[in-house]
Amino acid sequence: MSPTMLSCSQPMPTNPQSFRRAxxxxxxIGCGTEGTVSxxxxxxxxxxxxxxxxxxxxxxxxxxxxxxxxxxxPPQEHINNFLTYILQYExxxxxxVFELAxxxxxxxxxxxxxxxxxxxxxMTLWKFLLDMSLALDWLHNNMGxxxxxxxxxxxxxxxxxxxxxxxxxxxxxxxxxxxxxxxARMKPASANIKYHGTYEYGPPLPERERKQTPAADxxxxxxxxxxxxxxxxxVKSRVxxxxxxxxxxxxxxxxxxxxxxxxxxxxxHQYRPLNMSxxxxxxDMKIKPTAPYSFDLQRWYAALYAEDVSKRASSKWLVxxxxxxxxxxxxxxxxxxxxxxxRQTFxxxxxxRVERQRQILFQNRELRPRVPDxxxxxxxxxxxxxxxxxxxxxxxxxxx
Length: 400
Description:
Blueprint: H1 16-22, E1 23-31, E2 35-42, E3 48-54, H2 60-72, E4 82-86, E5 95-99, H3 106-114, H4 122-141, E6 147-148, E7 157-160, E8 177-180, E9 187-188, H5 205-208, H6 215-230, H7 238-248, H8 261-264, H9 278-284, H10 295-303, H11 315-367, H12 371-382
Antiparallel strand pairs: 1-2, 2-3, 3-5, 4-5, 6-9, 7-8
Helix pairs in contact: 4-6, 4-11
């Protein structure tokens, strides 16, 4: 078992001195809006954890809000495991301690996958939506009062190796465990607030001007799924947006403008089907093409993207309809994958047997005298002067 898979077998330190005695700093691993994250390892057990501290002193309030939010959330398999917090952490506190995600966030995991594969496996996308459906159902329907995460995106969804996976047969887990993280912006659904998460993963612009509902989280999962599968931001491309503004007349933003908050918050979303042909992706959507995904996956993905909130899938509906369907689907895909592996192994072994037989036949043919060669040799001997005379009736006669 790798150090990252170790569970916490003893109480976690809750003051900075005892934490630094028990754990040693390994390296920085990430930086977000509110905080920076580093990797620490227990000097005795080898347990590895993630330590999150404020990015700047004025961000301390955000991490205090995250601690308060985390205390409200009962443990759940698809929400990142919060181990402890240290209020008086130096130089800037508080510090939050989490289990470490071996594969980082979804964006990093995608880059890792594409270092070995042509595209994100479809099975992985089914598992992503399955895990996120369960996580959202927990926040929306199983905490007494419904809560909204409010800032779901690939960078706030972590990737862990599945239970029992050791990497012996597969270099990468195609069915990892996905967990929601960074719930500092989580609010009760009853709170009268507007969407205040990352703009690119927010719901349609008119919906952002109304009171936020759990439907915003479902939209964000659809947008994150698009980004995970296709590798693009789920908004209209900057080049296309500039062209639209040129046609409208008036001020035309530059590419630098579109990186500012003022413009980021108003660039409209872009729904992109997952089963588009590669030609359509390249020439119509103007994105780097990837082999299309199945219509079956596409229809569930589309249910997350309904602009009409009343028609958009809810987390409760996803758990009731999608989760059992996806479980069967993944089981079927695994069975087909195993059957294909067995078939490929059989064909490979068959080819090896044929090749061995061919080599044996070739070797035997080289060792066995060939009949034409023997006859040619005999004829040459019969034609030697003083040795033979004309062959009569197929039989040679010796000279006197």
